[in-house]
């Protein structure tokens, strides 16, 4: 599969490849008793090396204008004390993401369960006993 408008050496992974990578991470983590974060960082480095080799260390620079705008464009600008201030698109995307995430975490059952995942009842009992 190729992305429309991207050079031919840029490829997109398929869901099957992504699932296989996650399965490898989970298997290595559980069988070898290595923390999942360490396994994830190690496989990320492995996949970066594979991508580096497959691309023959060639920089990818022929992006469409719309894609460049997302990374380096400005939503708007204003003047502060006579100097222009530019608000990047990435900051706007961050604000929208935080607002949507906050809404989901506070107002949906999925958000409550997500927040509850990090709780440890044994630790909570020990902390409350010391108060």
What is the count of DSSP helices, taking H or I runs of 4+ residues? Answer: 6
Low-confidence stretches: none
Order of helices and strands: HHHEEHHH
Mean pLDDT: 80
**Most strands sheet:** 2 strands, antiparallel
Structural description of this entry:
The protein is mainly alpha-helical and 131 residues long. 63% of the residues lie in helices and 10% in strands. The protein has 6 helices and 2 strands. A two-stranded antiparallel ribbon has the order 1-2. α1 (15-32) packs across α2.
Q: Briefly, what is this?
A:
The chain is mostly helical. The chain has six helices and two strands.
Q: Keywords, please?
A:
131 residues, mainly alpha, two-stranded antiparallel sheet, flat
Topology:
Blueprint lengths: L14 H18 L3 H19 L10 H8 L1 E7 L2 E6 H19 L1 H8 L4 H10 L1
Helix pairs in contact: 1-2, 4-5
């Amino acid at each position: 599969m190729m992305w429309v408008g991207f050079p031919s050496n840029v490829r997109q992974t398929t869901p099957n490849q992504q699932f296989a990578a996650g399965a490898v991470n989970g298997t290595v983590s559980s069988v070898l008793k290595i923390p999942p974060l360490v396994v994830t960082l190690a496989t990320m480095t492995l996949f970066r090396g594979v991508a580096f080799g497959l691309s023959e260390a060639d920089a990818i620079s022929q992006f469409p204008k719309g894609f460049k705008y997302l990374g380096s464009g400005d939503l708007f600008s204003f003047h502060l004390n006579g100097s222009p201030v530019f608000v990047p698109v990435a900051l706007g995307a961050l604000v929208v993401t935080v607002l949507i995430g906050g809404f989901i975490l506070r107002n949906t059952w999925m958000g409550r369960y997500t927040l509850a995942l990090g709780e440890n009842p044994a630790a909570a009992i020990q902390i409350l006993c010391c108060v």
